[in-house]
């Protein structure tokens, strides 16, 4: 049967127009149901995303069906569900709105009764033998011999009947015997046995007994059965083939000194042999890309450096002509976006409009926040928010406490899982070092107030081209309530659909995005380096984050700020551990990843991959032990077969000597 990832299919459970549900078993013997979207549906726009989105949505519901593993980027995307949790594969297809057809259980039919063989009627005819010679002096015969009445007496052996007329005694001494044609015999009846026909003739004088004549064998003994030499030779050949095949199998297993390096990890949540608590990173690269693929490794390299950025702006809305307060209370609005660390001491790059929006954009955000405050205080109908903004935006300014001052702002960064409105640990205070305006790159360099952080490498010469795929990585949320929403890293493959211009800067347009907080995220090259920054498509009506700013613009920003993109020693150790892990060297991977995890506690992926490597090494050791046992069993079987072959040869030799 076919297999996907760590699962081997055993039988089909059901079908639907876009895929199939399979029963499967993993390498630990655990049963699962696997939903497989067929290639035609996967290549139809929207189906792959619907399949992945539905599976994720089912997993995130409190009472939903969570999948164990999934590969949404395979030619035929699939999702695996534990069998004990119910028909997860069937639920996924039904959640997609498909008509699911279970496979009926096969019933064994009764075997057909064969016809009994027809009996053969009649008595088989015996061949006629030659006439028997008689020795002794000749005696004339005056009449033909008399018939013998009565039933024939049975004798041992096969009787040799004589056909034709009797030979005269003196003819035996006169030369060759005359040839007498046999008398024709009527065909035997089908049902009744034949009886000898009486012959009427004149009585004859019996010949006198000659005591010196040679004895005649009147009963011919049966011939011995043919020797079954061919059968014995065939059996010997079969035994020899089995012995040779066993030897080849032993050689193949014994010669495979390197265990299979592509044993899938059990995941960070199922390290049954570990005595420490399993690590649950915010992003599991092995669940968002094919196992041990370059895409998984690229995600593992870059994901620890991803930063969730939140900026809070507070000020007052004033009349632009008189500086009078439009509302006595201060107005605050929040900007949330993604970023990525480029140095171990906390320098990160993000979207400029997120942490330092232009004056016109900040004013619009402030008036929008004020309108929503008025709606909350029942001073403005919710349906009039847009008209309120349009009427007041040209007439106001957004300032600090004093008319000529800037609004205050506070920037925070979070690693791994993040939560909105967090100003205490694990949130890290940050400040804006430098920013580029919207028409010159719209990027910003911030500095987190913490060191020893995981960084990512910048590829300023990365090649992006229309029509090529690229993987993006950013923070996203599925929460509906904005204020305290939870965010975690997400990744997807997008396609570059075209190019656009923002002042002197060229940007690349893509076909998908990861949500409102994804601007400032990273576009990766195949080695996990930064090829670009996720950017707002400001020409689009929804200003969605479906554009990529080339990494060369980020390199220019770092040059203006006097900051160099550098990897720390821990980052290099972490990458060495990943190299060992992905080439199958579990022992080296455990050593290197343990060092990286101890030196950089914020890098949860270093701890997760170390646990995966430990679990994989345990499985490899168990596999080697099973292989050794199998070798011993095969050696014993081969020895038994060889002994049987020798005994068979001795028996054949003795039989021939007889």
Automatic annotation (TrEMBL):
Compositionally biased residues, Pro residues: 137-147, 179-190
Pfam families: Trypsin_2
Keyword set, alphabetical order: Membrane, Transmembrane, Transmembrane helix
Region (Disordered): 102-226
Entry annotated with the keyword Transmembrane: yes
Annotated TM spans: 230-254, 630-653
Keyword NADP: no
Entry coiled-coil feature ranges: none
Low complexity bias locations: 119-136, 191-204
This protein's name: Trypsin
């Amino acid at each position: 049967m076919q297999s996907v990832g760590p699962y081997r299919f055993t039988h089909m459970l059901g079908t639907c127009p876009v895929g199939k549900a399979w029963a499967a078993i993993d390498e630990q013997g655990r049963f699962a149901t696997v939903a497989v979207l067929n290639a035609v549906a996967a290549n139809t726009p929207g189906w792959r995303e619907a399949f992945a989105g539905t599976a994720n949505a089912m997993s995130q519901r409190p009472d939903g069906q969570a999948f164990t593993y999934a590969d949404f980027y395979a030619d035929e995307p699939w999702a695996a569900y534990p069998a004990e949790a119910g028909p997860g594969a069937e639920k996924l297809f039904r959640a997609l709105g498909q008509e699911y057809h279970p496979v009926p259980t096969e019933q064994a039919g009764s075997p057909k009764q064969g016809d009994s063989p027809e009996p053969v009627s009649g008595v088989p005819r015996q061949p006629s033998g030659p006439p028997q010679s008689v020795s002794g002096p000749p005696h004339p015969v005056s009449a033909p011999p008399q018939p013998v009445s009565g039933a024939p007496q049975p004798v041992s052996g096969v009787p040799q009947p004589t056909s034709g007329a009797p030979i005269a005694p003196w003819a035996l001494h006169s030369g060759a015997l005359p040839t007498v044609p046999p008398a024709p015999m009527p065909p035997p009846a089908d049902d009744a046995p034949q009886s000898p026909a009486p012959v009427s003739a004149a009585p004859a004088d019996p010949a006198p007994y000659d005591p010196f004549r040679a004895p005649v064998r009147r009963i011919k003994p049966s011939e011995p059965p043919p020797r079954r030499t061919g059968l014995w030779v065939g059996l010997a050949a079969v035994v020899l083939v089995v012995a040779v095949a066993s030897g080849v199998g032993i050689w193949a297993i014994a010669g495979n000194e390197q265990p299979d390096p592509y044993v899938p990890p059990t995941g960070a949540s199922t390290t049954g042999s570990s005595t420490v608590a399993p690590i649950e990173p915010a992003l599991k690269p092995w669940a968002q890309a094919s196992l041990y693929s370059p895409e998984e490794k690229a995600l593992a390299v870059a994901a620890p450096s991803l930063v969730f950025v939140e900026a809070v702006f507070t000020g007052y809305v004033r009349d632009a002509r008189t500086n009078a307060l439009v509302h006595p209370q201060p107005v605050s609005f929040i900007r949330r976006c993604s970023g990525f660390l480029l140095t171990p001491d906390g320098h990160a790059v993000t979207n400029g409009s997120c942490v330092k929006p232009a004056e016109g954009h900040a004013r619009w955000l402030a008036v929008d926040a004020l309108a929503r405050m008025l709606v909350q205080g029942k001073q403005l109908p919710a349906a009039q928010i847009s008209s309120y903004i349009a009427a007041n935006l040209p007439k106001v300014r957004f300032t600090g406490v004093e008319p000529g001052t800037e609004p205050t702002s506070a920037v925070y960064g979070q690693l791994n899982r993040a939560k909105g409105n967090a100003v205490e640990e694990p949130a890290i205070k940050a400040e804006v070092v430098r920013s580029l305006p919207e028409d010159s790159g719209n990027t910003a360099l911030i500095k987190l107030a913490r060191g020893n952080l995981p960084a990512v490498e910048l590829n300023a010469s990365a090649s992006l081209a229309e029509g090529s795929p690229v993987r993006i990585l950013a923070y996203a949320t599925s929460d509906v309530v904005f204020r305290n929403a939870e965010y975690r890293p997400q990744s997807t493959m997008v396609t570059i659909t075209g190019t656009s211009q923002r002042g002197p800067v060229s940007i690349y347009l893509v076909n998908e995005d990861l949500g409102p907080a994804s601007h400032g995220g990273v576009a990766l090259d195949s080695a996990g380096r930064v090829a670009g920054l996720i950017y707002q498509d400001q020409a689009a009506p929804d200003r969605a984050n479906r554009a990529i700013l080339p990494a060369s613009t980020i390199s220019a920003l770092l040059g203006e700020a006097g900051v160099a993109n550098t990897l720390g020693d821990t980052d290099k150790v972490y990458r060495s551990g990943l190299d060992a892990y992905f080439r199958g060297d579990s022992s080296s991977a455990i050593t290197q990843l343990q060092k990286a995890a101890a030196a950089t506690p914020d890098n949860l992926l270093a701890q997760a991959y170390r646990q995966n490597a430990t679990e994989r090494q345990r499985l490899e050791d168990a596999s080697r032990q099973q292989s050794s046992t199998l070798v011993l069993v095969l050696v014993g079987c081969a020895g038994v077969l060889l002994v049987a072959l020798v005994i068979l040869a001795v028996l054949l030799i003795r039989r021939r000597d007889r």
